[in-house]
Amino acid sequence: PRSYGTTETLAINCSLPSAQARGLPKECYGVPLPGNTLKIVNPITGVVVPRGERGEIGIKGPTLMMGYLGKTSEETLDAEGFYRTADGGYVDAEGRLFWEGRLSDIIRTGAANVSPVEVDDAISTYPGIKVTQTVGVPHETLGEIVVACIVPHEGAVIDEAALRDFLKQRLASYKVPRHVLVFRDDELSMTGGATKIKAGAVRQLAVERLSPENRSQKAS
Question: Which one of 68, 114, 164, 187 has the fewest CB atoms closer than 10 angstroms to its CB?
């Protein structure tokens, strides 16, 4: 089963049984468990958004903490007693939670938001991919562009154009990475290990790799 919860709630808050997960995207984590309540709010205003609209996940339930040590409950929870998780996602018409990653990791390109989780799920189905982390890299006009950072399995050769064509069949056009950067294991080892890499550190590596200086050196 897939489950969603946080340290602050001390327990699982949403769950999707394996039998129901078939055919649903990996970012779907099911409905709230009894006693738990979800809401999705605009991360700036705190106003609840309509179902299907993306925002910040707020959660309330019987196992929710009373607060952080040294902080009042008013500093930790909102006026309705919800803990705002800083996770991005949405709730569909059936009341199922879709988790799209940390708000700080969600890529804002043009007028659209892109979930790196969704892009990575699609990339992970491409042959030869060992690890993938999609990040947003600053762009002068779009705000950010989508960039995939991957580590291939030993001996695998990943063709950027072929991978992008593969993703065009599975993702909306604005979600397809503008660039696919291939790294070695040892280049990413400092960012979190062989199976999970931290977006912030990888984003910096991508920025450096795509800098005009590095690209001109590669071209020469």
Answer: 68
